[in-house]
Amino acid sequence: MAQRNLQRAKGRTALAVLTVAVGVLAVGGLGVFGLAFEENQTQNLGDIANQVRVEAPGQSSFAIGDGDPPELSEKRLNQIKRIAGNAETTVIRQVDRKRVQPGEKMTSPTRVLGVTNPKATYNVVRGEIPENWESGVIIDTQSATIFELDIGDPITIDGRLQEVTAVVEQPGGRFSVERTSAAALVPLDLVRSTTNPYRGVVIHAKNSFAAGEIATELKSELNGPLSENEQTFEVSSRQDDIESIDQQFTSTNTFLLGVGTISLIIAGISIGNLQLMSARERREEIGVLRAVGYGRTDILAIILIEAVIMGLLAAICGVGLTVGAGMLINNLLLAAPLAFQPDTVIYLGVAFAFGVVICVLAGLYPAWRASRERPVEALRG
Amino acid sequence: MLLTGENLTKRFAGGSGTVDALNGINVQINTGEFVTVVGPSGSGKSTLLSIFGLLDVPSKGTVCLHDTDIEQYNHRERTRVRKETIGFVFQSYGLIPTLTALENVAVPRLLDSDPAATERRAKELLGKVGLSNRLKHYPDELSGGQKQRVSIARALVNEPALVLADEPTGNLDRDTGERVFKELLAVTGDDVTIVAVTHDEYLAEFSDRVLRLIDGRLKTSGTDTEIPVSEQTSETPTDGGVNHP
Ligand SMILES: Nc1ncnc2c1ncn2[C@@H]1O[C@H](COP(=O)(O)OP(=O)(O)OP(=O)(O)O)[C@@H](O)[C@H]1O
Ligand SMILES: [Mg+2]
After folding, report:
1. Do A168 and A123 touch, CB atoms closer than 8 A?
2. Which of A77, A183, B48, B96 is deepest in the core (most CB within 10 A)?
3. Is the dihedral of CA B148, B152, B153, B155 positive or negative?
4. CA distances from A377 to A168, A288, B22 (A)
């Protein structure tokens, strides 16, 4: 019967359902948008967000130290590795430049970096980094061009003849402790450094959150108040970027959810109004029902069921719209319409429940009013 | 005795003073009797009927239905008694526009457990009022007379002991009204009591007894036993205004 009543006022019901559906869309869609936006940001930051770099002071050419800068010693390295836990690390040792005699033609890289686990940090362009990184030389694309070297070519490093096994991309960015700048990379243990045992460490955490934690801990352990040196280890991560994006994201999301909630409340009011009107219009009908033996609770139930049906209808439409809008958003931000984030389901659920609950709440008062109607009204045509 | 009213008084307090719609009505209605109530507009006919129908309570006086004072019923019980013992026929039919004729007849039992039995009974009743071929029609596809027949069928679906009809022919032309009226009598079993309000003296002649209401008081007539009309000071404000829209 409730259903028939709704069908009677099709146009009006459709409008009311639409308002609520739009409210549901607002809540759900904004949630989905937020998730897609977050994912988009994470993708944009890429791996950098997961990485933490530690660089010993005095390594950068601009650093002017007073006093002896602290060393990245074996002990400190172990400390760093402990903090990094089971995250992959690449340890980098820089060897002095080979002195170039005047008039001598440079035929091979003048700088040498000793590295561990290069696979984690460098992107191979050609060739292959052996699983067991004990021999061979890696050069970057720059040296490959300058010195006209390629896979299989021999190189003499520290008087030892080695073979180029891989060419890697030059890591970009001034953060890069791992920057190659036309250096040759060899297994760490094969080279000695005269100045500093290690230049730095690159840590690959499993996500940006873990990276942030590692960075924080490293900063406090390496550069804590106990260290008397003015020059400190440079610990860099994209922690701050991530935090600010997170913050921005949270506040946008809250705002959008607020807008959605308000629109749902407005939709609820319109449903309430509709029900009130239709209950008034059906006064005589309700009186007749009461006269022929329908109790107050029956009337209440009938009108509430109407509201529930409307709510369900609206919620289903709204969720449908949200999924559609979500596909558009995903397509825009993530270039894949179906790239829904797992949490989307939660937002859809919340939006759905919101739609139904609003309708029921809005239906409560009119239903109560109608059920209070005195049946005697039925006789007054 | 199915229904007795003793010293029934109904006073309405409105913005423009109080109105005594009923003023000391004494009436007894036997089981199986067919009673009509006539009287000018505003004389209190509908008010009397709604009190008989447990839709309203008198300001003063007592109503006994099946020898039970209805004052002792609470809301819920009155609803139940209405459902079980009373059938209503309204002047403006009171059909639900979204339901078919058949569904409208079934409405009083729609929330009950045996829909098949209800449907059977509804079909049978619609057959009795000559609407077997209109079961699936909606009210706005039916004529006034047909609508009132549907509403008569609905009044009988619960096998009531008492049928209350407030101007059942009021919206119909004379001929149709007469036919519908006769149909009401025909389909109602002999043991069912009917109280019908009508403007039409001619229709009242079909009844066993006529109750004449004027200004909320009864004038006796017909085969009725004399009910003393106590002398009253006629200062009670009554209006003769038409009460129907
Ligand atoms: N709810 C109410 N509030 C105030 N006054 C009322 C109310 N219901 C009825 N009355 C008054 O009671 C009197 C009797 O009304 P009632 O409806 O019983 O008349 P009626 O005999 O049925 O008239 P009609 O033939 O026009 O239907 C009228 O004067 C009316 O104005
Ligand atoms: Mg009346």
Report:
1. yes
2. B48
3. positive
4. 89, 8, 17
Is some CB atom of chain B closer than 8 A to the CB atom of A297?
Answer: no
Name the nearest CA neighbour of B88 among A1, A297, A2, A380.
A380
**Residue A353: how many CB atoms within 10 A of its CB?**
14
Token pair listed for A373:
């109607």
Reported for B119-125, long-range contacts at CB under 8 A and 24+ positions apart, including other chains, are: B121/B157, B122/B153, B122/B157, B125/B153, B125/B156, B125/B157, B125/B187
Average pLDDT of adjacent 10-residue blocks, chain A of 381 residues: 61 77 81 78 71 74 53 84 87 72 65 86 86 86 85 81 87 70 84 77 82 84 66 74 74 79 82 81 83 86 84 88 87 78 82 85 85 72 52
* Closest-CA residue to A363 (of A289, A290, A254, A267): A267
- In angstroms, the Cα distances linking A59 to A71, A75, A93, A157, B25 are 10, 19, 11, 22, 113
Residue A108 near residue A184 (C-beta atoms within 8 A): yes
Closest ligand 1 atom to Cα of B199: 25
The reply to whether ipTM tops 0.85 is no
Radius of gyration over every alpha carbon of chain A, rounded to an integer in angstroms: 34
| Residues with Cβ within 8 Å of residue A99, at least 6 apart in sequence | none
Instruction: State whether the beta carbon of B52 lies less than 6 angstroms from ligand 1.
Output: no
Joined tokens for residue B200: 């039409």
- Cα B55 from chain centre: 11
Instruction: Give the pLDDT confidence of B57-91 residue by residue, as tens digits.
Output: 888 888 998 888 888 888 888 888 888 899 999 88
**Which of B46, B98, B158 has its CB closest to that of A8?**
B98
Query: In chain A, what residues touch B87 (CB-CB under 8 Å)?
Result: 292
Tokens of A305: 């069921």
Yes or no, beta carbons of A1 and B96 under 8 Å apart: yes
Ligand 1 atom closest to Cα of residue A380 = 17
Residues 277-296 of A with CB under 8 A from B: 284-285, 287-296
Domains of chain B with bracketed CATH: 3-218 (3.40.50.300)
Which 3 state secondary structure label does DSSP give A311?
helix
DSSP annotation string for A216-255:
HHHHHHHSSTT---SS--EEEESHHHHHHHHHHHHHHHHH
3-state percent helix, strand, coil for chain A, nearest multiple of 5: 55, 15, 30
